[in-house]
Amino acid sequence: MAPKKNADLPVRIASAAVMLAVAIGALVAGDPWLDWFIIAVVLATLVEFVLLVLKATGKAANRFVGIIAGTLYIAAAGIILTGLPAPMIVGVVGTVIAVDTCAYFFGRTLGGPKIAPAISPSKTWAGLLGGVVGASAWLAAFIYFTARQTSGPTTMGFDLRETGIIVLIGTVLAVAAQSGDFFESWLKRKAGVKDSSNLIPGHGGFFDRTDGMIPVVLIAGLFLGLPA
User: Is residue 140 classed exposed, middle or buried when 0-12, 13-18 and 19+ CB atoms within 10 A define those classes?
Assistant: First the structure.
């Protein structure tokens, strides 16, 4: 009998709930627990990245360059995250979750042409559109409620210019998140593996969860002027 589609869904949901609970716990606890949590995720991601590079190429020079570049790439995102205030971390992480969620539902519902089937067969242009919608909607809600907290309840809505800026930023962040996903998918194909590891039941590894977040964090750091 063929395995049922989505047979691992309960495991995926349980794992996601545990990850979310730990992340929220670290966020509420604040420093130093939040910093330690970020460092642990960065280290786990970095180890998985290095293992993928070692599997993807046998040339010492390529391995050296890849590991150095990847270490800078991943570590910079970790440093930026530790420098962000808790509300901004919620904004950044929420953007990536919104991109992934809406991209999944738009892609599954609308289907259509693939972006780069040789790298990631499941990614479609409809999914990217969903990612833009998700990121823009999340940013609008985040900015709106943040503004109300600082400016009072008289702050209402956005004008056309502000809406355009939010959609532009949402588009940039959605493309960045998808690019991070494509990068890891390409690396996994080179390495001949499906997941970066099996540390998270139903989800693969830490790099599978942080691949889209890293470029978004780097862009947030550049936008906010934080040192990496």
Answer: middle
What is the number of H-type helices and E-type strands within the chain? 8, 0
Distance CA 207, CA 44 (A): 8
Q: Where are the beta strands (DSSP E) in 32-139?
A: none
Per-residue pLDDT of the chain (228 residues; tens, 9 = 90+): 444 545 555 776 777 777 778 888 888 888 889 999 999 999 999 999 999 999 998 899 999 999 999 999 999 999 999 998 888 888 898 899 899 889 988 988 888 889 988 888 888 999 999 999 999 999 999 888 876 555 555 555 677 888 899 999 999 999 999 999 999 999 999 999 888 888 777 677 889 889 999 999 999 998 876 555
Task: Please name the residue that has the structure tokens 């953007």.
Answer: 95
Q: Maximum distance among all alpha carbons in the chain?
A: 61
The string of DSSP letters for 140-204 reads: HHHHHHHHHHHH-TT-----HHHHHHHHHHHHHHHHHHHHHHHHHHHHHHHHT-SSS-SSBTTTB
d(CA 131, CA 127): 6
Neighbours of 169 (CB within 10 A): 17
Q: What is the pTM of this model?
A: 0.86
Q: Encoding tokens for residue 125?
A: 């242009």
